[in-house]
Amino acid sequence: MTRLKLIRASMLVAALALGGNAMAADAPIKRGLTQQDWAYKLAEGVTTREVTYYSDGVACYAKLFFPKNFSTDKKLPGVVLGQGWAGYHNSIEKYGARLAQRGLVAMVIDYRGWGGSDGFATVTDRLKNDDAVRVTRTQANIVVKRTRLLPARQVEDFRNAISYLQGEAGVDPERIGVWGSSFAGGHVITVAGQDARVKAIVSQIPGGSNAQPAPLKLDGALLADAIKRARTGQGDEYETGFSIRRMVDVETQQAVREYYPFYHVRYLGERPILMVVAEKEELGGNVASRAAFAEIQGPKKWIEVPGVTHFQMYIDDAFETSSNAAADWFNQHL
């Protein structure tokens, strides 16, 4: 497969992951976020701390936001926040800051291989293994990859961040919420569907599919890449992303085809979920989100921000609406 075809396929996969419908032709398009869009000012008294959490042994970056007059003697609700497709903490710190301003402890994370987190390490030397020795300390050549964009691994990172936040002094481990935007709007549904520790969910401009889990045929370029990875340890790469362009492994396309976040709404039970969507959503529309929302049996709320497209949700009045709605939801249900 040529690089151009891979790039086109990547954008199609991303769009399908974000809803699976035609793009809106009449909506003004903001195609990503800039450093100016990331900018925010901490409210008086809100403090931060950079921390390292571990996900399957990989050191990952996170930033904690604490409310004014925070004390470890208190037990406040905590929320883990993650960004979407090829995104990292810079673009959503402003949401963490707003939640802290509203009295919550917020933990904004980077997934493995993205932002300030370490990558996936692979040992390239064959090691002499003795099955009786279960832990070995040795020196070897390794390859560290920052080209993996795998939704199932990012879900694991969310869950490991929850574990970290539950151990933070001053946080009530029984009152943990999750917030995700774009592709991570699907992640938080998957996380909550798998992890009963999540007590409240906010899914913003979520990405997902209405499809039911089923075996998928693996053929063509994806099969060729899978064979190459299995036989050599390294597959091909292609460029993807919106706000930030990055090279990622072709296996991403297969992983996204096999990812069904909206399927997990059936496992939310009575845990409350807020969906915040953009009226002019251009990355697939809101059909899949509406269908998933209709299946939710417990407490739920749908907010459709008028007149904005996908990336406009993060700025100006739409940011004010979406961030305060999330804070209200967590304060009400945690």
TrEMBL record:
One GO molecular function term of this record is: carboxylic ester hydrolase activity
Q: Which InterPro entries match?
A: AB_hydrolase_fold (IPR029058), Dienelactn_hydro (IPR002925), FrsA_esterase (IPR050261)
Per the database record, which ranges form the Dienelactone hydrolase domain?
72-206
Give the signal peptide, or none.
1-24
Q: Which UniProt keywords apply?
A: Hydrolase, Signal
Q: Which Pfam families match?
A: DLH
Protein name as catalogued? Dienelactone hydrolase domain-containing protein
